[in-house]
Amino acid sequence: MNKAIEKIHEFERxxxxxxxxxxxxxxxxxxxxxxxxxxxxxxxxxxKGSTCRYMxxxxxxxxxxxxxxxxxxxxxxxxxxEFNGDMISDEDLSVYTDRVLAEVKNMTDKGLESPTxxxxxxxxxxxxxxxKACDYVILEVxxxxxxxxxxxxxxxxxxxxxxxxxxxxxxxxxxIEEIAKEKAGIIKDGCPVVTSCTDxxxxxxxxxxxxEHGCEYIQTKxxxxxxxxxxLSGYQFDARLLENDYGKLEISMTGRHQIDNAVCAxxxxxxxEQQDNIKIADExxxxxxxxxxxxGRFEVxxxxxxxxxxxxxxxxxxxxxxxLRKSMxxxxxxxxxxxAIGMLADKDVNGIIGEFTKITKDFVITEPDNPxxxxxxxxxxxxxxxxxxxxxxxxxxxxxxxxxxxxDQYDVVLFAGSLYLIGKIRSILKNA
Length: 432
Fold this sequence. Notes:
The protein is built from 15 helices and 17 strands.
């Protein structure tokens, strides 16, 4: 492991704690690099990563120096910080880690509370993006909104909120309204708000917070969309965005929800154009949209004419599982499916299982590499109660071996249940 990453992981012992005081203190010592960045800030339960990826791809295609900060990573830690299509190099990660940790030592020497691991990584990203002279930085919230370490940005150009649903209730609240209020905490005075949320209760909260802050408020759930092509290779659709008609838009990410994410991203960029912040030619918009890829989100890992087709998807909460099931209903209708799954114990396991068992009754059960994992035996017991056939293989490598043994009986093999699992599976499949 890269020594910089080892140093960063030492901060795991401080846990994950919401709140901005530690982050504010650290960034002050670093000269507040975040204040010099033009930020597009994105929160949401599901869809925020793909929405960020669409904007990132289009802005690069239009010639803008663009930074992207996301979490978690799938295969390599450096994925979390990208600039102009490349993740941060090991050398740069080492340099910026040492600079940030020097100021962390100054903090703790003064008796101030140590930052968490996520706060350290966020500070590294801000410093890196500033010194790369980014034109724009797309900043994905880590957890929630108001207390997330990314929320130190005082005046983003636009804030975007994607879906709002039940996840991380121990931190964010037990009702949709409470969770929406937490996510709406990224809204700042006078900064336009774009949301692709479809839940009426959540929208009411987001709109009220936007109005309190005097923000332009745009919701995209009622955007006119006409789909002309759909399949495992993506979609073609028409859309009307802020009085502009776009025909034959193409995306390569799969699942009907990806059209909603694309529409959200395009709306944010149109708002930026209205502000005279950016100018994007239609050809750059179309090409950037089509080029955008988000690994681990209904990602087809084989040729489309292979049998079985192998798909990986990071669905790990009830809304993600529902979206996955709907995608499978449309795109893999009448196909015989084997699912290989592993989950974290603190998720809505029964709700997720309820969606997965509508896809198939045949499972390989494994475990994510995470202390919060649900054991494969417990997960298998829950599925067997639903009449499912389960092959138990706790290690991801063994699960892939088990899949290999029986895959010829199926049209589709689908890995899902946790991003921590999908990252490992993706590495195994790529190197097979």
